[in-house]
Amino acid sequence: MASFLASPVAAAVLPFPGRLAPSRLALSPPHLAGAELEALRAALDSGWLAPAGPTPAAFEAAIAHTTGLAASLATTSGTAALHLGYRVLGVQPGDEVWAPALTFVATVAPAVQMGAVPRFLDVTPAGWGMDPGLLAEELAAAARRGRLPRVVVPVDLYGQCCELDAIIAACDRWGVPVMCDSAAAMGAQQRGGRHAGHGAKLAVYSFNGNKIITAAGGGALASDDPALIARARHLAGQAKEAWPHYEHETTGYAYGISSVLAAIGLAQLPVLEARVQRRRAIFASYVEALADLPGLGFIAEPGWGRANRWLTVLRVDPAGFGADREHLRRALEAAGVESRPAWKPLHLQPAFRDAPRAGGGIAAALFETGLCLPSGSGMAAADQDRVIQVVRQYARA
Length: 397
Ligand SMILES: *Cc1c(COP(=O)(O)O)cnc(C)c1O
Hints:
12 strands, binds pyridoxal-5'-phosphate, globular, 12% strand, single chain, 4-stranded mixed beta sheet, 15 helices, alpha/beta
């Protein structure tokens, strides 16, 4: 690798050989654990590169151990895991799939591509997750209409666990399965110290490059029901039946994680707890340094669980602060600091203009005022100080 980076080819194709843009402070860049090269060498030495063999299996065992779920399938991405989840839950064209209004598009994108109709439910101001009370009301109304959703997909937003117990209780009443999108919540805990996603029929995790730990790209579908994971595994490997030739009763996908990516993920999982601690400390430093400024607030830690603080989200009330979050974002950008507005709610996205919804005002307000600040666990204290200085100067201006 080093010799390639030093080569004329690399010099010609890479804008910053071996590095990201040097001066810009990124929102959540990957943070190496140090053991990746060794793990990659072991994976290469095993003779397996394909999405099979000992390395993906070891990664899956480690994911199951970390999450406390009985079985897991490692995939090419969190989005692929969501897609497989929708398949094994039997989503059909015209089915409704319910998700919170405030989330990343990938939560529902695979279901929409399968012909399902998304319905967006508002979130709570406390934890920014799907509102369980609203969900219970909407389920009762849907039962009266005779059109219950095929699946409800709550989200652990920014690594803060949703109220999963209450959501599952509401869904159990009507026999509706829950798939928890815990893509950003590796290492986060719900009530009682249980890992994010635990208790749902299916849980989804992401190991994308910007998440709290990474496989350079990858995801997982996990469950306490090994039969569901076995079915997902079948679909992830092109739905090949057990014949000497390739026999297919349905069509599947090429969604299995490669041994190379699984090796990186395997080297990252042991530092997960340290990464959670670091991200929580970054959050605490932002709060300490900025909480005295008028018009600023933070996504609170509600009375349950432990957020992994994947991203620190600042709330900017323009009346109190004197400027809105977009002005602040531009000021940070001018200082070489990447920040990003909170998720734009899905019910406000042109792609879902016609989707049914329940409320959405809270999600919309959080989008208007929410700004994600650099939160990478590898961020130097001096770099975080730089972010804090810009915000403080801007507040005085
Ligand atoms: C990152 C993320 C995903 C998608 O995961 P990928 O691995 O990038 O496909 C889905 N949902 C949420 C909430 C996410 O944050």
